[in-house]
Amino acid sequence: MARSALLNVMVQAAMKAGRSLSRDFGEVQNLQVSLKGPGDYVSQADRKAEEIIHAELSRARPGYAFLMEERGVVEGEDDQHRWIVDPLDGTTNFLHGIPIFSISIALERQGQIVAGVIYNPAMDELYTAERGGGAFLNDRRLRVSGRTKLSDSVIGCGIPHLGRGHHGNFLVELRNVMGEVAGIRRLGSAALDLAYVAAGRMDGFWEPALAPWDMAAGILLIREAGGFCSDMEGGQEMFDKGSIAAGNEAIHKTLLKTLKKPIR
Ligand code: 2AM
Ligand code: CA
Description:
- It is a single chain.
- By secondary structure, the chain is α+β, with helices and mostly antiparallel strands.
- The protein has 8 helices and 13 strands.
- The strands form 2 sheets. An 8-stranded mixed β-sheet has the order 2-1-3-4-5-6-7-8, with helices on both faces.
- α1 runs antiparallel to α2 (39-60) and α5 runs parallel beside α6.
- The protein starts with a helix and ends in a 5-residue tail after the last helix.
- Residues 69, 86, 89, 213-214 line the site of calcium ion (CA).
């Protein structure tokens, strides 16, 4: 498949970081049994992957700014462009030897996401999208699912855990959705969840507390696959609100409504 120069740069960075994460993931599986456990090792793997992506992208596009999970904001001379990077999304899975984790890289131009790459090294699945150019899984063009009824739909979500998020609110959302759908899934990598919606594997997704690096590439993938994304209030402030709801046009609309049903 012929990719643009920009996507090539992003894919190369993601795959190089992916090779590093794969090596470390193999080690994590061995470390599971050791006394100290793999926690520190995983933070190192995460930082190493971020280092690789930062080096590759800076070399190919000097001066672009960064927003990265580990380093935070890195200013650049170019005030038009910003990379938004999660070097390891699905850290808890990685730490537990579950092969569902990803690298997410997006490029923002004048505040608009114009390119996105999500890579799952364990499954060798590469998702790419460029604004106006469609979304792809490896070489295959993606389209969001065509299901229109919630009762036929598989809906992904993120579940808050110890020390994170509002557990009571989530239980209300879950109760509202679980009674209406064919199934609920929780992958543990928001970037991959969004990629799965773009691929039509899941019909919708919501998560109330995410960072821009979890969502940026996935939002573009879904839009380029013909889907819809909003914050959980239905607006376009996903980064500011930190929440997201996504799906095809029909499911996105019904999901938003269902999430907000008053408690019975
Ligand atoms: P992570 O693996 O990079 O931490 C799981 O529900 C999703 O929530 C994952 O994508 C996970 O990303 C993300 N997540 C976990 N802690 C987070 C935090 N403090 N802020 C934003 N996103 C977070
Ligand atoms: Ca993340």
